[in-house]
Amino acid sequence: MTQSLEVVSLEPTPDQWRWSFGGGEPLLTVAPGTVVELTTEDCYAGKVRGVDDLPSVVCQFPYLNPVTGPIAVEGAEPGDTLAVHLVDIAPARDWAVSSTFPHFGALTTTHSTAMLHEPLEELVWLYEIDRERGTCLFRPRRGGPEVELPLDPMHGTIGVAPASGEVFASITPGAHGGNMDTPEMRAGTTAYFGVNVPGGQLSIGDGHCRQGEGEVCGTAVESAMRTVVVVDLVKGGGPAWPRLETDEFLMSTGSVRPLEDAYRVSQHDLVTWAAELTGWDRLDALQLVSQAGLAPAGNVVDTNYTMVAKLAKRYLPGATAADGVHERLRATAAAYLAQR
Amino acid sequence: MTQSLEVVSLEPTPDQWRWSFGGGEPLLTVAPGTVVELTTEDCYAGKVRGVDDLPSVVCQFPYLNPVTGPIAVEGAEPGDTLAVHLVDIAPARDWAVSSTFPHFGALTTTHSTAMLHEPLEELVWLYEIDRERGTCLFRPRRGGPEVELPLDPMHGTIGVAPASGEVFASITPGAHGGNMDTPEMRAGTTAYFGVNVPGGQLSIGDGHCRQGEGEVCGTAVESAMRTVVVVDLVKGGGPAWPRLETDEFLMSTGSVRPLEDAYRVSQHDLVTWAAELTGWDRLDALQLVSQAGLAPAGNVVDTNYTMVAKLAKRYLPGATAADGVHERLRATAAAYLAQR
Amino acid sequence: MTQSLEVVSLEPTPDQWRWSFGGGEPLLTVAPGTVVELTTEDCYAGKVRGVDDLPSVVCQFPYLNPVTGPIAVEGAEPGDTLAVHLVDIAPARDWAVSSTFPHFGALTTTHSTAMLHEPLEELVWLYEIDRERGTCLFRPRRGGPEVELPLDPMHGTIGVAPASGEVFASITPGAHGGNMDTPEMRAGTTAYFGVNVPGGQLSIGDGHCRQGEGEVCGTAVESAMRTVVVVDLVKGGGPAWPRLETDEFLMSTGSVRPLEDAYRVSQHDLVTWAAELTGWDRLDALQLVSQAGLAPAGNVVDTNYTMVAKLAKRYLPGATAADGVHERLRATAAAYLAQR
Amino acid sequence: MTQSLEVVSLEPTPDQWRWSFGGGEPLLTVAPGTVVELTTEDCYAGKVRGVDDLPSVVCQFPYLNPVTGPIAVEGAEPGDTLAVHLVDIAPARDWAVSSTFPHFGALTTTHSTAMLHEPLEELVWLYEIDRERGTCLFRPRRGGPEVELPLDPMHGTIGVAPASGEVFASITPGAHGGNMDTPEMRAGTTAYFGVNVPGGQLSIGDGHCRQGEGEVCGTAVESAMRTVVVVDLVKGGGPAWPRLETDEFLMSTGSVRPLEDAYRVSQHDLVTWAAELTGWDRLDALQLVSQAGLAPAGNVVDTNYTMVAKLAKRYLPGATAADGVHERLRATAAAYLAQR
């Protein structure tokens, strides 16, 4: 396999960043199976560089959450499955930032959960990133102990062009993926998206050095990233909602409001998927998922909320998802890493 | 400590079962620190014993989800913290059951999410419990592979008498605890409840051999249990919502609707708690929880939905929750188990 | 009819007020068809008497929202329909009050929609009531025009004992009625409740000189009331959720969270009811309600939210609800008012 | 004024219909104050013409809900207020249709409220429209009485191009307007939209002969329309969410999920608006709206739910909204109708 490894690079300049999913021409077109080495800027478009850079001052709405892409995949047609394996996600700088943001987050009044309170105070936290030791350092702004947290890099935003000609801001998660903000989107994961337009049009951004489930303050440990993905195509079988696979788990996602509907969407998809993969009746799959499934929050702050439904593959005897593409992409990733 | 170990037994007869939290006389009164060996019946009141025992036929509403208790704790006054350490939860039989139930569950129309659909089919699953091997066996009703799942026993229902003289059915979770249905309520966990009435009035029931997060079909692997708890009291500091502690984690819960409000309640409590324990400003605690917190669903099927907010204690330097009672109860549990 | 008019009086002293639905002995027992002249205190238990009486200071939680009752109705058995016709609701004083209340209302963080904001400012408004002219005078606290509003007296809280031995605080609305806070509960309306316990146990309180739909700040123009009701009984036919009837409309209510579920419950009940009364298939009734139904909010501030589903009786040809008891009670009311 | 009355016509052919808000070139550009006589097709794109035309068969997703437009208004810049006065809305045919639709509506499982039920039966109702008598005739499909309902024509869908380059399907309501499905959008109403892009880009469609609040089955009495609007511009003052004005009422809208957030958005906007117009402090405006405001549902079926917050202008002494444009447009409408 290594002899045929196609590797391309995608390092967009700021004028090439995109701010939405859907519309626009691809920035890159690749054959299925291509390894793409790409760079992403952070959700602040790199403008918050210290604790005095308040996002509401230095950022210019709506120029938030730039994404790298779209990457068109040759041969991808509506109804197909676009598979993206995350090979490596490496912080590009030795610092990262997080912040509150006026009227954004789960524990504050927002544009949608409109109330008469003044916004919470806007604060920025600067994290030191130690790539050698694999840590990021939390420094409280107003005293108290510092905490060293393990790096667990992931991408908050990844997805394809929506159906029906819709164009969504890159901060919106949905059936097309987008800003799902789940920590499960780490290296080692393969994400599956249903293709809605020719080429699929994959974009990726919003790197996080790590993120708690729900992203309760509204932002993670935000960082520019140097990321490697393998992009592949499975003909047909495009899922209605993004799905994830790791060596150990299958996962379905749902990104709607209220949060119980995001739970319903993700669990419904996982139950249906489990039934298809095993031959179980859907009520039998419902029963198994009820006893063995996990349900972590993705985000509870974005324009849609995201829940993840997660099931260990060892509880799905004989099941092979998406024609086994995850295994193949793992091999591609290993070959790439061996020769890098 | 072992010389002073107080151990009492509580094995209610069916006419002693209770069906609600609040009201009624205690079934047992104990001194703080007492080990209680108790039995609980399953949520079907033991009436579903095979796949032909449809709950809607053999159970008599509202006689569902019996609880054992209340157990009054001497000296417990409103505002105090009732601490319950789960020492051991052992399935009492070599079988357990689960089922769908008409108009109950997350993927079906219900009493509250009222729709015009007919109910989903009512089905019962019988699990074989192998206590030696620590497994329960899932047998699909309509073909396909069987799956052996690890036992992970827990109690779906545990709580105290509500405030303000309210009486809630045992199937309702809330600020008093109750039917939270979180898999975190396993042996090794200490649960903290705010005391609302003299004695606190602890009740416990709804044992599960294991349960997925969210309990999507509405029921877990339901089983009668032989359970051992240590009941203790911390003067003052009663939390507004139930909290949990294990050797590794602190957890807050929220049980309301919609699910994002359950998320908000649990995260708000965890943020506030973390700030108190470390001396951080609340916004600093918000930031840390945003990056390091977990947010698994408890239940998304009961009269209130439950979310759990979970933080590793290693990220809270120097923090000691509830006067360190968890550590003391771990020691009591060890002493008990050593002499059992 | 006038010769048989049974009229009784119920003027509870403060020590006789109740604070919940369910539990406790009846304060009065009446035969079906009895006219009851009763008094109710306001939701502040009469303690807020001027703009300097902050509720959080002068009121003592949970002693809020006293109700008058319970009134047991002879012969009422579980499954029956308790019918309450509101004959007259008259403000008892020449002033009334409203207020914000810390962490209560739709546009503020609350106990359930927990956020990190400080509470909104607590303010009290004193209204002058002019019973002759039928007005209440709004005086802004911080300048700007005063507004004279028409009196439209109603009861925020009315209901029966809940099922299954539950006891709910009087501020909670639900299937038993309770604190639904809908402006439709005015004189001329007949309310129907499903009986859950012998006698039904009707209680009433929380008079409002008027109220907007949703009660957005959390309180209405709160007033002690002198109220006249006729209490009657229809054997069987107890509705799952409270229903209302006026000369012009049938109404169903739903009181749950989230608000779309309250909408679903109320519309589902109205569709089902319309089908029963006309002989339409349920999908035909759904179609008619879709085109001719109204859907005003009741409250969006209490522990459950209330939606009302409302259909003009002229769109239900030949329909007679609840054995025509509304017409009979209108006649009783007219006879009472004629002789008063 | 009549001498200067500019009247233009817009009758798009099917290939000119649009299916989204945002993107694309204007179909017409007009000066502020222009009267536009336009035609709209129904939400089924005219393909459902009898009870045997099942929408899921004859319609081709996503070609649903065509809109007429966009109409660019000369001089409209982001931040301005686009005012649209509805002069006349007349059914174009002597029949109209309604239907259930698989997995769409408030009382059925949907794409978002995902459940395991089969869809409800798909049924079509054909209404006879009598324009002379002003009625539409409901014929139940399965027996029972027919009902004559009054015509109350309105447009379910009206709005402008969204901000930030987003493109939303015409079935989605939001801050840009769109498919709000409120019966308040009838002749005599002026709608205000915040302009997001040069020209504003107004589109209109989805005529309803009448509609219940909430549109519970998912569709109204759907009809092609011959509609007359006056399109005008107020520099600055663009509202965050669509607002409405009639001779009697001011209204704010909110279109998000869950429904309580739509309520919050609409009430928050109305409170803020009332404060601005009267000089009241926002808490005083909150108090007045709490007692005098109305809160009918718009839709509880679309991709966002819509609530309307409604306040009689007589309770806002001295207030003039949007520079009095509603009064001026009423005069323009009268002049147009006089000369038609």
TrEMBL record, chains A, B, C, D:
Write down the SUPFAM superfamilies for this protein, in alphabetical order.
Answer: Acetamidase/Formamidase-like
User: Which terms in the Gene Ontology molecular function aspect does this entry carry?
Assistant: hydrolase activity, acting on carbon-nitrogen (but not peptide) bonds, in linear amides
- Signal peptide (residue range): none
Q: Which InterPro entries match?
A: FmdA_AmdA
Tell me the protein's name: Acetamidase/formamidase
Natural source organism: Geodermatophilus nigrescens
